[in-house]
Amino acid sequence: MSVQVVAAKMAEVELKDGKNLAKNDPHEAGSSAAASPTAEPSVKAGESSPGLLTPNPVKMPQASAMKRPDPQQNGGEAFVNRDGTVAEAPRMKKIQFADQKQEFNKRPTKIGRRSLSRSISQSSTDSYSSAASYTDSSDDETSPRDKQQKNSKGNGDFCIKNIKQADFGRREIEIAEQEMPALMALRKRAQGEKPLAGAKVVGCTHITAQTAVLMETLSALGAQCRWAACNIYSTQNEVAAALAEGGFSVFAWKGESEDDFWWCIDRCVNLEGWQPNMILDDGGDLTHWIYKKYPNMFKKIKGIVEESVTGVHRLYQLSKAGKLCVPAMNVNDSVTKQKFDNLYCCRESILDGLKRTTDVMFGGKQVVVCGYGEVGKGCCAALKAMGSIVYVTEIDPICALQACMDGFRLVKLNEVIRQVDIVITCTGNKNVVVREYLDRMKNGCIVCNMGHSNTEIDVASLRTPELTWERVRSQVDHVIWPDGKRIVLLAEGRLLNLSCSTVPTFVLSITATTQALALIELYNAPEGRYKQDVYLLPKKMDEYVASLHLPTFDAHLTELTDEQAKYLGLNKNGPFKPNYYRYY
């Protein structure tokens, strides 16, 4: 809009004000008439009309119609008269409601363990509403281990943050069910058969709304479940409360200590009169604890289902050493888990986790991604699409060649560690980012982990007297060097997406369905089908999991004719690929 148009509109508004003023005050009629472009000017003999002497017929408002703030009146307004004197305008009192004043006076003077700033930032990462994010400070200061809680049915066989959050958690679970079509279909199809009747499943996974749908599906199929968290930061407290209210024995809360973590696992396993016969693990910690503390339990355990790189690696080590005494199902390397949970899930959740914690802009940032497996591929694709300059480190020449063909520069970490803005680990290995690299990072470098294990970043080496830790917001720490340099460490080196944000529910539906089918297979398998070794999920089950999710997209599979099936040497109903086939 041009300056002339703005000035004209302002003048028009003031002229209208002048007309209204003339109606109320006859002494001001002359002024308003002179200012109005439509009024006939009253010109005495021998005088010139003001409107004819000025190039613009629209005059600025007279002094009597102008107002200015009077600094002596604390922001009040005053009228400027023609003679230059200032007359005070009637002052208007602002109304302050009593409850507003009382609310201001109620502002807390002492802050408990959870500061106000942390409470505010926490609300951005908690998945339930802000109303549920703020709990009584005394509740926050009390460890769940020291509280006696019972659900509405009087059952107290659980240990969670706050049972009162169950209603919020139930709504979260109901939302998750809408995006987990395969689990809901499996629950509906197999509920009458109860394929897990008699199964006593002890689980150690992330406790989220999506896991809750899996647990309730296992229960609907006949299983009894006891559960702990595999990550001290990923538990959704409201979901744990909803599960406890529903009768599940859950031992988990967000922000557990290391001691709490192992205590919760022990409470799941060690219950008089209850013996697990199936294990569902994510990371191998539950399996490790039973081997260490209760090895006799494996006499009645029919199998282990493991979904993580780290846990599967541990199982293969046990098998190689001849110490694996039950069959184990490697869910992590199933096609549906690798391609959808690891690749497509991380492609979306890496950006979500970084945005929620740091508000970083990705365009132009230099990022190094350590590892170009399925997780690394997803992270690199997302960051490249956002305009980041992405480097890749890799030990496998095949994955390294894939990175090069996808347009990424393959480097060693020490070659770029001084210049990159973000470091992301995706290997599942240990000591990928050691203290030497942390010392050489630039000021403000963001360091995070997308692999399962919390050993990729050498966080322990940062807990030394010369370094200062500063908690900025939930799951975000600044580690400050003596010279003032600081790095931004996310989730203390633990899994970024599940610790600091959320992951797409749909891809978790694929993984959870795979886990459920693996449990059903191992539990119902005739004796001798599976030996004391690690097995991949049968290809037929992988294809079945995928087919359960296709109706969501209104997708229609093409069916082979008898002639085509005979030509390819396939069964019309699958499996359609041999076990050695690579899905790229």
Keywords, please?
seven-stranded parallel sheet, eight-stranded mixed sheet, Rossmann fold, 23 helices, alpha/beta, 584 residues, single chain
Short description:
By secondary structure, this protein is α/β, with parallel strands linked by helices.
Give an overview of the whole structure.
The chain is of the alpha/beta class. Among the domains are: 144-337 and 504-558, Adenosylhomocysteinase-like (Rossmann fold, 3-Layer(aba) Sandwich), CATH 3.40.50.1480; 344-500, Rossmann fold, CATH 3.40.50.720. The chain is built from 23 helices and 18 strands. The strands form three sheets. The protein has an eight-stranded mixed beta sheet. α9 runs parallel beside α10 (209-220), α10 packs parallel to α21 and α21 (505-524) packs antiparallel against α22. The two termini are 55 Å apart. Residues 16-28 have a biased composition (Basic and acidic residues). Its cofactor is NAD(+). Keywords: NAD, One-carbon metabolism.
What is the fold's blueprint, element by element?
Blueprint: H1 3-24, H2 29-35, H3 50-53, E1 67-69, E2 77-80, E3 86-88, H4 98-105, H5 116-125, H6 130-133, H7 137-141, H8 166-178, H9 181-190, E4 200-205, H10 209-220, E5 224-229, H11 237-245, E6 249-251, H12 258-269, E7 278-281, H13 285-293, E8 303-306, H14 309-320, E9 328-330, H15 335-358, E10 366-370, H16 374-385, E11 389-393, H17 397-405, E12 409-410, H18 413-416, E13 422-425, H19 435-440, E14 446-449, E15 468-473, E16 476-480, E17 486-490, H20 496-500, H21 505-524, E18 534-536, H22 539-549, H23 562-568
Parallel strand pairs: 4-5, 4-7, 5-6, 7-8, 8-9, 9-18, 10-11, 10-13, 11-12, 13-14, 14-17
Antiparallel strand pairs: 1-2, 2-3, 15-16, 16-17
Helix pairs in contact: 1-2, 8-10, 8-11, 9-10, 9-21, 10-21, 15-16, 15-21, 21-22
